Amino acid sequence: MKPMLFAAPLKHRNFVETRDTVIELVRNSPGNKIIVLVGPTQIGKSLIFQYLVEALRNELRAENAAIIPLISFTIATSQDGRISPKHLWVMVLKALRHPMYMHIGEFDEQQHYRPSRGRDEGSMRVATEVALDARLTIYALLDEAHHLTHTKDREVRSNVLQSIKCLMAIHRTLVLVGGYELAYRGLFDSAHFVGRVICVEFAPYTDCEADMREWLGILKFFSQRISVSPKNLLIAEAAILLNVSNGSFGLLEKILWQAHISSHGKAITQTVLRAAFPTKAEHDVIQRDIDAGQKALAKMNSTDFERVTPVGERVPKKKGKKPFERNPNRNLNSLPVIVDE
To answer: Is 214 in contact with 13 (CB distance < 8 Å)?
Structure first.
């Protein structure tokens, strides 16, 4: 049985607004779009993913068992800390119940037909594209999608993201849910990819007035469900709790859960509460991720075109220079001197 701390669903403002926005975007997508949800760790992205999957499945009940209008799965790293395209295709084909791949990894795998030829990436991509059409799939949803970009090699990142575009077609919508890494590690590298992206941020709370009002409401909610001493402890600690949790509901919940366990059934005191705070190193890593993600989103959402040369307008040439003429080297003394012996 769940403790009272977790009994109620997450119905705070940022969660509800983000959930409703994502569900409406996906539900009304005309196809040929990539809808991306990004946010910090432990904020509730996977819960929104579950709500989205449930909402779509309730609307897309197919009478024919052979039709699979929706596939969904969670991305996991499998090779050097990054996703393997071959692993990705196996997951997609299993979700599509492809007869040659659906039993891979199952306990009874040996009891099913296994093709004599190898399962190479090229053949699996062809099988995926055929299966998507045969199953009449219109939605592909991937959770923990930031694992797709777990590499510093820009070309590898680009290839992985480009490879999943077959999940999105003129009549299909691809949904990616993951951390801010998606925003600052490759999501916007390819024009062909980003031209189809609609990005939604599940933002953490900040110390602005509106956010603080909502944050205090969250703390009052918890104060009614866990024993604290004094009764206004969480309200009195609101500012520091906002800071140490990076404004994330999930990280706040983690702190309170640890304090609840450490109190051994007694009321949580300030000493016990602060002992459950994350380390500074943990806090700083999460904050850097938030800062980098929001910076990338701000850059890509900018509508300031003043410095961009309009289409059809030629960039003015530099005065006094011919086309392709290089700047003269004015420091002749710096040139090497070659002396013939």
So the answer is: yes
For residues 107 and 221, membership in a common domain is answered with no
Please, which contacts does 98-101 make with residues 24 or more away whose CB atoms are closer than 8 Å? 98/127, 98/131, 100/127, 101/127
Based on the domain organization, do 91 and 125 belong to the same domain?
Answer: yes
The answer to whether residue 17 scores a pLDDT higher than 70 is yes
What are the distances in angstroms from CA 75 to CA 53, 214, 304? 15, 32, 35
Mean pLDDT score of the chain: 83
Is this prediction's pTM over 0.70? yes
pLDDT digits (tens, 9 = 90+) for 290-310: 999 999 999 888 877 665 555
* Mean pLDDT, residues 176-198 taken together: 86
Examine the domain organization and report whether 56 and 182 are in the same domain.
Answer: yes
Residues 6+ apart with CB under 8 A from 241: 215, 219, 234, 252, 255
The residue that leads in pLDDT, 120 or 237, is: 237
CA distances to 63, 159, 189, 301, 304 from 309, in Å: 54, 30, 21, 18, 12
Q: Residue 70 has which token pair?
A: 């929706």
- Output 165 or 225, whichever has higher pLDDT: 225
222 and 171 inside one domain? no
- 70-74 and 197-201: which strand pairing? unpaired
Q: Please give the Cα distance from 92 to 131 (Å, whole number).
A: 10
Same domain, yes or no: 109 and 151: yes
Over range 75-95, report the average pLDDT.
75
Angle, vertex CA 150, rays to CA 147 and CA 155, nearest 5: 120
- What are the residues facing 198 on neighbouring strands? 35
Number of domains in the chain: 2
Distance CA 61, CA 181 (A): 34
